[in-house]
Every structure is written in structure tokens, then in C-alpha cells.
Specification:
- By secondary structure, this protein is α/β, with parallel strands linked by helices.
- It has a 7-stranded mixed β-sheet with strand order 3-2-1-4-5-7-6, with helices on both faces.
- Helix 7 runs parallel beside helix 8.
- About 45% of the residues are buried.
Length: about 220
């Protein structure tokens, strides 16, 4: 089995970051033995998730939020490499506790919000508070936009990590973004079928969003 350090070497990272990222990967793999944290089951798969997570770094600025953090991708690798404080929103209690332990073990600045993003988006201390946000959840782009844009302040950006985006989903995302106070600023291909879609927040999100139910089951404009 190839060590995580070896798999992560050559990514333009200094040795300290490689060591911390490898430790993070091993902690996630260990947690995965006890409950389902991520679909990644091998060092090779974890290394790919870490590398993919780091693709968002050039788009981020503080304060930064990650929605549906799960095992911590991309926020934990972002925090390791940038030193940026991270706010992680994760509704599953076991995963939230894991994220808290990861922040402590890796000595990262951050806080875990153990509640659904649909509720967090209405909290006065979180709503339109962040300069940038990510959400790596497996959901449609309009659903991700509805969870993220209410948390982003005017002038900030929601950074969506996506695979292929067909014309129908792209059109739905454009329409949903407008409803949520934003717009699709650009779409950058980052290798293979992976891309970053950047949504710029231009005005306040209407108070009815995110919907308490339906954001993911009935995505806007789809």
C-alpha cells in the first residue's frame, strides 16, 4: 500500500503540509472503519479527494464556510494549507463530532455547526456573513446554490465544485442564482471533467431562502 505522503508529494506543497494532510487522511480512513464517513476506502482514493479539495484554494477568502462538510472535504485540507479559519456546517451528529476532533488533532482554527444548512442559513450570526463558501455535497447545482448563497455576503462568492454540467442544469443554476441574489460569474475547467463554477453574490437573498424543506428534494428552477 502506497503511503499518503508519497501520494501527496509533487502537489507543490511544503513538507509540513504534506505531513498534516497525510495525517488527516489516515484519521479519516480510521474513522471510516467505525462508521460511514466517506466513500473513499484507500489511501489512493483519499489522496484524490485531498487534491481535488485544494483546487478551491485560489477562489477563497475569509471568512470562509463549508456546507455539508462530511469528512471535511474540502474545508479541512483548505485549513491545513492556508491557515484560514473554517466554519463547517454538518447536520449528522457523528460526522460533526468527527470534524471537531479533526480540528483539535490537526490544530486548526475553526468551528463546527451541527445543524442542517437550511436552518443555519437563517441564523443571524451566519446569514450573509461569509466572503466565500463551498459545498461538495452530491446534489444538483441549484440545490447547492440555495444552501450556500444565503450564507454569503454581498460581493462574496459561492464556489461550486462540479463534474460535468449539462445545458439544462446550467440554465437552472443561472435562474436559481438570480432568485437567490447572485449570478454565475464564470466556469473554470480544472482537469478531466472537474470544474469550478463561481457564483457572485450581488444583492441580499430574499428571506424565504433557503427553504426549510425542499432545497435538496425540490431544487429551484429544475
Amino acid at each position: 500500500m502506497i503511503a499518503l505522503e508519497e501520494l501527496l508529494t509533487g502537489q507543490g506543497l511544503d513538507e509540513r503540509n504534506v505531513a498534516a494532510l497525510a495525517l488527516y487522511g489516515r484519521l479519516v480512513l480510521e474513522a471510516n472503519r467505525h462508521f460511514n464517513v466517506t466513500g473513499a476506502r484507500s489511501p489512493e482514493e483519499i489522496a484524490r479527494h485531498i487534491t481535488d479539495s485544494l483546487s478551491v484554494v485560489p477562489y477563497l477568502r475569509e471568512p470562509y464556510v463549508d456546507v455539508g462538510s462530511g469528512a471535511g472535504f474540502p474545508a479541512i485540507p483548505v485549513g491545513i494549507v492556508t491557515g484560514m479559519p473554517v466554519t463547517l456546517i454538518e447536520a449528522t451528529q457523528k460526522k460533526a463530532r468527527l470534524l471537531e476532533s479533526l480540528l483539535e488533532r490537526l490544530e486548526l482554527q475553526g468551528v463546527v455547526i451541527a445543524e442542517r444548512a437550511e436552518a443555519a442559513g437563517h441564523r443571524p450570526d451566519l446569514r450573509e456573513h461569509f466572503a466565500t463558501g463551498t459545498c461538495r455535497a452530491v446534489a444538483s447545482a441549484p440545490a447547492v446554490a440555495e444552501l450556500l448563497l444565503p450564507l454569503i455576503g454581498i460581493g462574496g462568492a459561492a464556489v461550486l465544485q462540479r463534474g460535468s454540467v449539462d445545458d439544462r442544469e446550467r440554465s437552472a443554476l443561472e435562474d436559481a442564482s438570480l432568485m437567490l441574489g447572485g449570478s454565475v460569474e464564470r466556469e473554470d475547467e480544472i482537469g478531466g471533467d472537474r470544474r469550478i463554477v463561481l457564483l457572485r453574490k450581488q444583492r441580499a437573498t430574499p428571506g424565504r431562502f433557503p427553504r426549510r424543506t425542499g432545497a435538496q428534494k425540490r431544487p429551484l428552477c429544475e
